[in-house]
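Backbone geometry tokens:
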Amino acid sequence: MRTISIYLILILAFSIIATESHNITLLGEVNLLGSGEDIVFVNDHALVASMSYGIRIVDVSDPSTPFEVAWHPPAGMGYVTGLGCNGNFVYVTDYNEGMRILDATWPMAPGEISDISTAGYSLNVQVRDNLAFVAQYESGIAIIDVMNPTFPENVSSLDMPGLTKDVSPGEDYCYVADDMSGIRVVDITMPDVPIEVGSFDTPDHANAIANDSTYAYVANGIFGLKIIDCSEPSSPTEIGSFNTPGDAVDIFKQGNFIFIADKSGGVRVIDVSNPALPSEEGYYISDQEIKGVWVEGDICYASGDSGLITLDISLATASILEQKLPDNNSLVILPNPFNSGCSISGLDGKVEIYNTMGKKVATIESPGLWTPVASLESGVYFLHAPNLSSEFKKAIYLK
């Protein structure tokens, strides 16, 4: 009996851990072969880098019911470690087999159109302005001309002092996550002659990196998120940080939010509108270690040891708006939440309706009825009477 009781306690504890969340809701999940190291989103499909199991292709047109529709094998004796995308083209790093380019116009059957060898072990790739930047682990970065995807050409390479894990190209500079050698800033104004101009030593593994031209955002292992001010590329300085509970290994930036794949810490959502004071707005801890993250609108796609999960992040990304815009005006929304329509009253005049990304989706008259158009997605919306009040009111639309 004692053995059974302990077993039940362990199962209960595991269930609690697996479902721990704040401001993020699990929509769907699908089991996949391999370890989901990276992820991109193309034409309503999530493509997951699954090492020796190649690329797993998941239909996420309905995020609540994702399902695997196909897979694409790794090249030769390689295994898929990273993915990048530009339009309908997907760029694949195959570790010891270089980089490949796929046409994913029809994601269920992506066509392989070219490949190119790299000097080192290719881990990750990002594309900007017809150039692919490849993290080559022991061999720094490679820059590849992909203007003609059928015939990619090596342009240049630049060795790094550490183990190059990720790249994030900007307009004039490429920001490099170089493991225990921190981040490196590379001048790419002349892609055929890249020059390292600055660096910053992070305290743990610099695993992944994103940038917005002024700041570099680093997934820094057990130290979580590091924010580096690169406005002076020759002397980057740390301006902010946020310690996550797990091991930060991947990163995605959308608007003022950073999304971290934090392994045992799940998915973390961090507001960086003030880079000096980042704040966590939501998290979701899964029953698998999360290693890859991608965001499209209000949906986060996260990959890990056993598959793909889809998450509704609308509350997490809306929470900062609620802090800045107190919910104490006289607009009345009934019912709220609602599924087909709601009445708006309390103020007489024009009411504008915005989604969580700040895009206006409708304008109505109050008092009146708001009936969302068929194409509008479920989620959080903010109502504002610009000529009558400075405040916003939150409405939750559930189809």
Notes: Residues 2-18 form the longest helix (17 residues).
